[in-house]
Known about the structure:
Blueprint: E1 8-12, H1 25-37, E2 42-45, H2 57-71, E3 76-80, H3 86-98, E4 103-107, H4 116-129, E5 134-138, H5 140-143, H6 149-155, E6 161-166, H7 171-180, E7 186-189, H8 195-200, E8 205-208, H9 215-226, H10 230-246, H11 254-262, H12 280-292
Parallel strand pairs: 1-2, 1-8, 2-3, 3-4, 4-5, 5-6, 6-7, 7-8
Amino acid sequence: MSQKKIKGVYTAIVTPFNDDLSIDYKSFYTLLDKQIEGKIDGVLIGGTTGEKPTLTEHEFQELVEKSVAHIKKRVKVMVGTGTNSTDKSVKETKLAADLGADFALVVGPYYNKPMDAGYIEHFTKIADASKIPICLYNIPGRTGSNMKPSVVLELAKHKNIIAIKEATGSIDQAQQIIKKAPKHFSLLSGDDELTLPLMALGGDGVISVAGNQIPQEMKALVYCLENQKYQAAQEIHYKFLDLFKINFIETNPIPIKTALHMMGLIKNENFRLPLCRMTPENKAKLKTCLEKYELI
């Protein structure tokens, strides 16, 4: 079990679909190659942005397998393996490890709304069974409940739980974790817009949506923050702030996937229900923003 610290920029990759809603691997490989060329630190496969909940077990396995084979260790591979069943999460995490993933991203159980003790037992069982290190993922807006800093810090004592993707939107919650976390434990922003403040407080990077569009620029932002070049980091942050915001004008990954289609990186903007295409009004706003950044 590795204790290597997770740092830098991990891009949460979308899962492109063909017209028949099968996975469009040609476009998917184009996205992976863009990340590698942008010298990103790693990619997240099968996360929220990758529409993991609508992938079949076979598709999930094939997606991870093909990702690892295509990347060939050029960047790190993190895989979303969290479900609202502890046993299923253990199974998916073991599978990701067997297929060559470097890390597993495990979201807090959604819908169940566990108590503090349930969170601790859930993640401990997964980490005990996993051959690869675990990154917790706290996003109360999607799961329906919050992992308190006290719970996160208790879990951080586990040698195979090495990070958290912090997506509560709470600076206070993040700084409580950063202040008291053990040295092996990383805090990664789950929101591009909060990368600067969280890293200025001692965070270690970001799991990024905008990285799909601007991997080099996200890498530059994090590099400046890692090296305490705060003025340069502020310039990058404010330059791309409108892009960070427009990517969440509708439920993620609807805007980012639509943007990647407009940019010519994926061949269509298909989603699996219950996600659907953007409203014409928001699509027009997105197009204007992408034109502003000369991305289209």
